[in-house]
Amino acid sequence: TVGSDSGSADSLKLRRLPQSRRELTAASAAELRQLVELQGLKHSDCIERSQLQARALQALQREKTFPKPRPIRLGPHTANILTPKRLKLSERLPLLFVLHGAGRTEKSVQHMVLQFSKLSARLRCLIILPSSLGATWDLMPYVKQGTPSKDTKFLGLVWNKVMLEYNVDPARVAALGFSDGASYALTLAVNNPDVFQAAMTWSAGYYYDSRQMGPKPKILHGHGKADELFDFGK
User: 25: burial class by Cβ within 10 Å (0-12, 13-18, 19+)?
Assistant: First the structure.
């Protein structure tokens, strides 16, 4: 475990946007605008908060569209959304975040999309396969310098968008990762127990828990004794 007092622990939180009329009342203006934008609506004509809240309610009441597998691009970030075939409104599906290791390339991402598309179809689960903004996830800059995590902010937006568009079972959400992706998956899971029920990782180098106490998700971790990068003994 790596600990640090620098930066805000909120940087590791996936920010949940309002999902009911009641939650809209307590939401900030920024959260209402994000919700409207994620549903493809405009808010530039909303002068009063009441107008913005009404537009956000309109966004919430839109029917789930169940888009086919495709990439989601928000600013410079990209995440591939993988789905099984023949989605049904009556079927609530588990959701899996898959986080790549360091040194990802376009070729390696496409290989993961191909392999995890098969898993999505076989297990009937939704998969979010995001790409880090840099060569790897920006967790270590946060841990060492307290630099806000742009990757975590992006994952929060993608998670909210998937929750709006698909019929997700919120009681079956997990993170999976390898190497740097494993460190990030463990960190996201322990800092967001309200989102993740489990994490499945192998060859993680570390994880960061910003909380002093609280519930933790179920964790399955594997690590080879011959790992030359992250010492098994440590």
Answer: exposed
Rg (CA), the chain: 18
Q: Which two tokens stand for residue 214?
A: 């609280």
Dihedral angle, C-alpha 134, 71, 151, 1, nearest 10 °:
-90
DSSP 8-state secondary structure symbol assigned to residue 11: G
Look-up: residue for tokens 């190497």? Answer: 179
Q: What are phi and psi of 165, to 5 degrees?
A: -95, -25
DSSP states along 168-234: EEEEEEEEEEETHHHHHHHHHHHH-TTT-SEEEEES--------SS----EEEEE--TT-SSS-TT-
With left for phi above 0 and alpha for psi between -120 and 50, is residue 84 left, alpha or beta?
beta
**C-alpha separations of 178 from 77, 106, 136, 155 in Å:** 20, 17, 12, 17
Quote the CA–CA distance of 160 and 177 in Å, as a whole number: 20
Integer angstrom CA distances of residue 20 from 35, 169, 189: 12, 16, 24
Beta-strand relationship, 126-131 and 218-222:
unpaired
Neighbours of 13 (CB within 10 A): 18
d(CA 92, CA 27): 26
The answer to whether 34 and 157 have CB atoms below 8 angstroms apart is yes
pTM of the entire structure?
0.88
pLDDT tens digit string along 71-103?
Answer: 999 889 999 999 999 998 889 999 999 999 998
CB 174 within 8 A of CB 220: no
